[in-house]
Amino acid sequence: MSPPLPILLLNGPNLNLLGLRQPDVYGSATLHDVVDLATATAAEYGFEVQSLQTNHEGEMLDALAAARGKISGIVINPAAWTHTSIALIDALVVPEVPIVEVHISNVHARESFRHHSYVSPLAAGVIAGFGVRGYEYAVRHLVTLVSQ
Ligand code: DQA
Predict the structure, then answer these.
(1) CA 118 to chain centre
(2) Which one of 85, 109, 129, 130 has the minimum C-beta count within 10 Å?
């Protein structure tokens, strides 16, 4: 049997600064730790992870267009684009695969502008407020969905 298509792990703007940026909100783990955690979790199920973090919205849109037909599903922390980007939601539907949305912090306990997500209506599930462990849970859920 051929191996499953990889999981696309997307992290939006400023998440390159994880560990440095507002550690009281986002904790001390780095983006590297997050990618390692997602990769190790996916490997338990025989899935690979392709990871992209970018501060440039167009780069994420291009990656989603290029991923069509090449991935099993998407784990995404859209960061601030969660609350702003219609272009991102238009691109997220292009690969036609399940999406799990992750937020490290509990966005619902923060400023009201963080309470609305353009991405959530597209997502099979949303995880918020579990710290970086949320990425592990997101991968486990996604693998369950795409293995059905
Ligand atoms: C975030 C929450 C967003 O509101 C914020 O803009 C981020 C990170 C989170 O992981 O908690 O950059 O997505």
Answers:
(1) 14
(2) 109
Backbone angles phi, psi at 80, to 5 degrees: -65, -25
Average pLDDT, the chain: 97
Q: How many CB atoms lie within 10 A of CB 114?
A: 17
Q: Are 109 and 36 in contact (CB under 8 A)?
A: no
Report if pTM > 0.85.
Answer: yes
Is any atom of ligand 1 closer than 6 Å to the C-beta of 105?
Answer: yes
* Ligand 1: centre distance to CA 2 (Å): 36
Domain boundaries, the chain: 7-147
Neighbours of 75 (CB within 10 A): 28
Positive or negative, the CA dihedral 72, 77, 80, 84 is positive
pLDDT of residue 139: 98
Domain 7-147 sits in CATH at 3.40.50.9100
Which stretches of the chain are assigned E, i.e. beta strand? 7-11, 49-53, 73-77, 99-103, 125-128
